[in-house]
Design brief:
Elements (H helix, E strand, L loop, with lengths): L9 H4 L13 H11 L4 E5 L2 E4 H17 L7 E5 L4 H12 L3 E4 L6 H11 L3 E5 H11 L7 E5 L10 H4 L11 E2 H8 L14 E6 L9 E5 H14 L9 E2 L7 H13 L4 E3 L5 H11 L3 E4 L1 H8 L14 E4 L6 H11 L3 E7 L4 E5 L19 E2 L4 E5 L12 E6 L11 H7 L5 E9 L5 E6 L4 E3 L2 E3 L1 H9 L4 E11 L3 E10 L7 H9 L10 E4 L13 H6 L1
Parallel strand pairs: 1-11, 3-4, 3-5, 4-8, 5-6, 6-7, 10-11, 12-13, 13-14, 24-25
Antiparallel strand pairs: 1-2, 8-9, 14-15, 15-16, 17-18, 18-19, 19-20, 21-22, 23-24
Length: 550
Amino acid sequence: MSAYDERPWLALYGDQQADYDVEFGNALEMFRAGVAKDPAAVALRYFDGVLTRAELDELSDGLAAGLLANGFGPGDRLAVYLQNVPQFVIAMVAAWKAGGVMVSINPMSRTRELSYLLKDSGAKVLVSLEALYDSVARDVVPETDVELVLTTSELEFQTRNDERLFAGMTRQRHEGTTDLSEFIAQHRGTVPPPVELAADDVAFLTYTSGTTGVPKGAMNTHRNVVFTAQVYRDWVHAGADGGAIFGVAPLFHITGLIGHIAVSMLAPAPLVLAYRFEPQVVLDALAEHRPTFTIGAITAFTALLNAPGFSKDSFASFASIYSGGAAISPTAERAFLEATGKQVHNAYGLTETTSPMTVTPFGSPSPVDPTSGALSVGVPAPNTIVRIQDDDGNDLPLGEVGEIVADGPQVVAGYWGKPQETAANLPGGALKSGDVGFMNPDGWVFIVDRKKDMINASGYKVWPREVEDVLAEHPAVRESAVVGVPDEKRGETVKAFVSLKPGSTTTPDELVAHCKERMAAYKYPRIVELIDELPKTVTGKILRRELRDR
């Protein structure tokens, strides 16, 4: 037995892990239990719009009945191409009620990407925003298996039509599509027949970012969804005492699917949506709805701290705040605490772990590793074994750096239609994360970086994360991203792209000197380029690959 099997982190969670079982047979049962608990309770808030749990149940019933009447059946896929709007949740629940699988699509996907996702998933139904259908999906759908296109608008379910988000938007009708609300109205009042969903049936397909090849559809099962929703409720305190959850992360992303939607169903608790991330709009929504929990990328929180109108009161209602999806530096953690008076807790997971594999226990600040200066991403979630392994799959001693491998109830069954990739990345059902890190003797996990991002400078390993953490200590630096660039003498050398805080000034030479004073000679950046904004995914993760491609 290795040190990881002995689970040194149990001291933080205690014996409660021993009886931590999945409470519901599938995610639909979980949803229905929340409705039955209080049908009149608020399920969704969208600006000035409100949907109760009974209304959400009725709307999703109507959509499910309509789908079944149009040939949709058990195991069929329904693709959702939407922003953070109520229709996203309605469509997801309806897909389950019809015995199907939801396919989650990034609304930033363009023609080539959308075509691949629809073809790979074999989706029969597409639920799309009208504008996205007009600009992207119109030319894609005829080449796919999609038989029914339901379009909707971000203007529905609310009346404010905030100019900061919806300026110039109008309703659009497109030939070959059906209006979602009208489709639901035709079938509203019809209750779809009972459906049998097993715990190991796929609840939704979430696609990886495709950084190391084509995107892969992770098969998140109903067991995965219910388990990780429970982790959010019990260990992260999401939706505690019915407090509202704010959807700062995109709903299409695994963080939004579990940390926003699934846990709001389980708690149950209201979910507050605001279409998409616009800092001033988010600050207004926080002031109006006073949510008690959210989870999002630290880059989103940093943007809020630097937005006009931010004050300490903006986060006053929160009882629990977590960050995932992008690494947090100790400097960023301290800055958030100083600005808001609230502790931001760290969590870590991937699409393939249905959100968290490690969690900082609520109320426990993450420790900082004294050697690397990295902030811990928590300890393994309940019922989860996290190992650090070498390239041959052997467990490394505690404290040594290797690949992070996770095994637990949240790990997906595999990739949709890709048995070879499943065998390579999920050998024996455990996920090889592609992230490099280590575990200390108490069970705290620390991420060093992505394996593919390691820089080889004159034969020395340089991990971008460490350089970025040092840059974060400079008072003028807002964000940074470090990459390796070709160098005739060193093979690769270290280059940093840096954006500055509003009103701050510095020079590349000053930033090089800042790092040189604090790092080994082979680590500090030889080149610094100042840019206004770092490229990011819609979830806030900085895209090093785009910077590297420059």
